[in-house]
Structures are given as structure tokens and as C-alpha cells.
Amino acid sequence: xxxxxxxxxxxxxxxxxxxxxxxxxxxxxxxxxxxxxxxxxxxxxxxxxxxxxxxxxxxxxxxxxxxxxxxxxxxxxxxxxxxxxxxxxxxxxxxxxxxxxxxxxxxxxxxxxxxxxxxxxxxxxxxxxxxxxxxxxxxxxxxxxxxxxxxxxxxxxxxxxxxxxxxxxxxxxxxxxxxxxxxxxxxxxxxxxxxxxxxxxxxxxxxxxxxxxxxxxxxxxxxxxxxxxxxxxxxxxxxxxxxxxxxxxxxxxxxxxxxxxxxxxxxxxxxxxxxxxxxxxxxxxxxxxxxxxxxxxxxxxxxxxxxxxxxxxxxxxxxxxxxxxxxxxxxxxxxxxxxxxxxxxxxxxxxxxxxxxxxxxxxxxxxxxxxxxxxxxxxxxxxxxxxxxxx
Length: 391
Ligand code: KG4
Ligand code: ZN
Hints:
Blueprint (H helix, E strand, L loop, with lengths): L1 E2 L14 E3 L6 H6 L9 E6 L4 E8 L3 E9 L1 H5 L6 H22 L9 E7 L3 H18 L3 E5 H7 L12 E6 L4 E8 L2 E7 L5 H11 L6 H9 L24 H16 L5 H30 L3 E5 L6 H13 L3 E3 L3 H4 L3 H13 L2 E3 L3 E2 L23
Parallel strand pairs: 1-14, 3-6, 6-7, 8-11, 11-12
Antiparallel strand pairs: 2-13, 3-4, 4-5, 8-9, 9-10
Zinc ion binds next to helix 5.
């Protein structure tokens, strides 16, 4: 059965869809009490929320064993964006072979797998259903637990896969194609929303700006590359919502400002490659400044001295540099994943799923697919069963 997408604010899971049960691997924790670390688990992670098929194997003792990604970018590029039906069909074609490749790359067999984590949302419902169906079918055939994972929690925890991972608590800036959020994170599943975009996400603004500049999808990395050739301060774009208190964002006005600047350059007969690069740089600088100002406020407001950035836009070099410069002044530290784990990937889902499965969490018999899913409705995992990352 499918748990259909539900609107924000409603209860997302009933007890049968998302519950805690005692799995074989958890028995040692329950028998020996909370101070005992659970047995290691080998978790297969599956990401199919949008246009990338991502698979990874994460061992809770040894770390990430293998991962692979198939990007559908070439297929969608002709359409200037993701075509949901094409995305689902391609996940069907690629997912199982990719699982087998990752299992082989890790030197394992399917029988070694202790649990399967898949992205249950937010995302495109058809694409989510492919990952959920494959995960549940594999889990059923192998007799192992299966868990639907929140995509943005996956992004949020991706920096934990790097050396020197951040300890809790921290402030997280989540910047992807669909989300721009500032979150106070006190532990896995302990999320306080500090601010978010009231309209477009930062990644969406990058993608729309790319279209205006005649660049292909996905636009973010292309705008960033073009901005490298821009002359600083040829244009100055607004820093939306920074002149008033609060931690919310708005990027749709910046998008309109960019469009007006492009049209004015075209009307004046001066929409040259250099002008495009100058506009790209002005846009990128405005986004980076805006995000940096809000992150500084969030650090000051919470007293946290750790800032995690995650999601596709966190791969942006100018953003990383801007945030690091700001953080140095506050004696704070910035944490982020390697670029391939900033954008969608299976490793972050395997990691997030592994942490929750170690705490005994698993799906019922139903495939969970939730296109819209607020992250602060997730249940916290038990403090004592975390992986020792608390201060
Ligand atoms: O997290 P992600 O891979 O997928 C979603 O969950 O949405 O993020 C994709 C977004 C796209 O909007 C893409 O243009 C943007 O991240 N992006 C970047 C960069 N790399 C990816 N934006 C700015 N600079 C980059 N280097
Ligand atoms: Zn994503």
C-alpha cells in the first residue's frame, strides 16, 4: 500500500507506516541496556527522489563501503528541466543494476545486507515510488527491515560522512533545488525550523537565472562557472529581506531583478558574453551575501558555533568561502560534504537510514512515498543510541 502525499501540517505517519520494532540487530541493545552499542549493520541506501539514481552501502562500523550515481541530466536537458514521468521510468531501468554494482564494488553479496533505506520524500511521487518499491521488494526477499528516509535529513547528515564531522548542536543551512531552510539541530530528528524561503529556493533561483542567461539545466554549477569570468561590481543586485529582522528568505524578487537586467541589456543591444558573466557574478554574489547574513544571524541568535551547509547549492565555492569568512569572525566552524555528496546521492540516505535503523526504526509493510513532508515532523532518535557525536 502507498502512504500518499499529504499536506503540510498534517500527521505524516500512522503507527503502521512508521514504527519502532525490535529487529534482530537491535536485540543486543535491548538485552544489555542503552549503554551498549548495537551490533554493526550493513545498510543499502537508495535515492530516487528526482533525477539522480543513487545507491550506496554504509557499514555502521566501517563507514561508507561503496556508492554509485546515475544522473539523468542528459535525458532531461532537452526539456530544460526534469520531466517526472521520464525520471520514474529511468529509475526503473537503472536502480537494480546500480544496486548490484554497488554491492559488488563493496565485495559483498545481497545476503550480507542487514537493512535497506530509501528516500520516502519529499520528491516526485512516481520517482519515490520506484525507490520504495525496489527497497521493499528487496527487503522482503532478503528478510531484512526497510525504512523510508527523509531526503532533506539525508542532505543534512551528509557532512557526517566526512572526516571531522560536526557534533550536535549546530545550525544547518539547507540549500537545494526545492528547499532553503535554516534549522537548529540538537540531534537526529531534533529540528527547530529557524527560517525558510517564502517563495523560490536558492537552487531554483540559480536554475532560473541560468535559463535567462541561455545556460543548460541544471543551472547552478553553470552560473557559478560563468560567474568566474565576471567583473565584480559591474552590477549590484539586491540582498532580499536582509534589511529587516528574521531568518526567512525570498528569492523571487531577485529573479525578477535578474530578468529586468537581462532584458535591459538585450534592449540596449549589449547582451554579450561578458555582460552575461557580469550578471551571473552579480546574481551569485547577491545569493551568497543574503545566505551569509542570515546564517550569521542564526549563529548569533542560537549561540551555536557550528554551521553545517548541505544540499546542492552547498557545493558552491563562493558560498563556502563567504560563510567561512563570516564564521571566522564569530570563531565558528563551517562543515560541508564533498561536492558529490552535496547534490543528491545514495550515501546520505544510507547514512541517515543507518542511524535510524540502529535505533530500531523501520517501515511497516507499506511503501512510504510523501511528496511534501516537513522535516520537523520527524521523530527524534533515542539520545543514548546515537553514535557518540554529542558534545
Ligand atoms: O540537493 P540537490 O541535488 O537536489 C534537490 O534536492 O533539489 O540540489 C540541486 C540544486 C539545483 O538547483 C542546482 O542548480 C543546485 O543545487 N546546484 C548549485 C551548484 N551545484 C548544484 N547551485 C549553485 N552552485 C553550485 N555549484
Ligand atoms: Zn536533494
